[in-house]
Task: structure prediction
Amino acid sequence: MSTSWALPSCSGRVNARELRGGAVVTFRQVLITTLLNPKAMVFAFLLLPLQAGLFELLPWLGMIALQIVTAGAAWIALGATLGGGARRLGYPEIITRTGAVTLVAVTGLIWLQSFLSA
Result:
């Protein structure tokens, strides 16, 4: 059930082996997957004050947007730097594996924090 949001974008999906072979992930595929990502609702409910009106939310939305852009740019820069080095060494798959481990670690830390604070 939790992955059903991604089903509409699976028609043109490629796997890691195809990516190594040169298959292109299109902007449209990334956009659809990003727009249908359920984490946006989690951010909205957890980070924004519930009783605030539209004008009271503007500073909050601006700060969240700034944080998202900063974190995204840092993640892209780190991935590009490490990816270039891994490709030069002949281990391009290490980047996808490192990204997966990082996401699992961050998810685990979020889960642990919410579990301990409950």
